[in-house]
Amino acid sequence: MTPILNADLHCHSVVSDGTLTPEDLAARAKANGVELWALTDHDEIGGQHRAAAAARAQGMAYITGTEISVTFANTTVHIVGLGFDPDDAQLARGLAATRGGRNERAQDMAAQLAQAGIHGAYEGALQFVGNPDLISRTHFARFLVESGVCKDTSEVFRKYLIEGKPGYVPHRWAGLGDAVRWITEAGGMAVIAHPARYKFTANEEYALFSEFKQHGGRGVEVVTGSHSAAEYVTYAAMALEFGLAASRGSDFHSPDESHTDLGTLPLLPGQLTPVWELLAHRIQLPPA
Ligand code: AMP
Ligand code: MN
Ligand code: MN
Ligand code: MN
């Protein structure tokens, strides 16, 4: 794999809160020129064998992926895992435990939304769920758009699903050290997802990056659908400062909702070490 590569190492399928199957995502990635792909469903690796097979069928290189929900400094932080063994038992147990509270949280969200005058949100959200173990805020957002409460999913989040809004239920996810360890001990690399999204103070961000490193984390997303061009520069500098490899991924969820399509972001800045250079031995190449 060359250092300059159209790699897309972050996206979601119906196994979490995306709307496409792993097969349709693989076809879309290939059509958009992706050369190395990873499916990174939230707290789930149930789509990994399908994604790898679909990538092979498309003649595209594949690396395993997931995106683990973590609570750090009372904030939800996402840690992407890449290149792990998809059959690792400890990782599977950790992800199952992380998913565990989602159903109860969803029922609490629906109860709060009912108090705000929106009824039937749990059953409504379930209509959009592809994996009964993984009901997420995104599924509620789709229900509220379909029922005409809001015009799009970002309006739903703004008005109902973020902290301080009527449908927001605080939740404790995995610990940072646990998530990094599950990924690393399964042979993979832990990567801080979309760091600009957390709105941390400089001190909190420094704590996240240094604790992540101490736990064995090795990468950070620099070019992602959630970063501005200025944030590419900021996090390229952070990658160099902390000695982290850099990743690139669209965070694509749906043709109707996502503003960044698979494989369409700028390439990684040249001076960084791409995650795929350190994960070369974990890349599944298609038949020649
Ligand atoms: P959950 O894991 O259930 O808390 O849901 C988190 C997911 O909600 C993220 O992975 C995004 O797909 C989606 N999300 C979070 N914030 C927003 C937002 N402001 N607009 C649209 N989608 C969002
Ligand atoms: Mn999502
Ligand atoms: Mn995320
Ligand atoms: Mn994501």
Shape: globular
Strand content: 5-15%
What is the end-to-end distance?
14 Å
The SS-based structural class is: alpha/beta
CATH class of the largest domain: Alpha Beta
Radius of gyration, whole Å: 18 Å
Q: What is the spatial order of strands in the main beta sheet?
A: 4-5-6-7-8
List all distinct small molecules, including ions and cofactors, that are bound in this structure.
adenosine monophosphate, manganese (II) ion
Q: Which superfamily, in CATH terms, is the homologous superfamily of the largest domain?
A: Metal-dependent hydrolases
Element order, helices and strands? EHEHEEEHHHHHHEHEHEH
| Count of all domains | 2
Biggest beta sheet summary = 5 strands, mixed
Please name the CATH topology of the largest domain: TIM Barrel
The tally of strands reads 8
CATH architecture tag of the largest domain: Alpha-Beta Barrel
Uncertain spans: none
Mean pLDDT: 97
Fraction of residues in helices? 25-40%
Count of helix runs: 11
Brief summary of the model shown:
The chain is an alpha/beta fold. It has helices at residues 22-31, 48-58, 89-99, 102-115, 121-126, 137-146, 153-161, 176-185, 202-214, 229-242, 275-278, and strands at 7-8, 36-37, 61-62, 65-72, 75-82, 189-192, 219-224, 245-249.
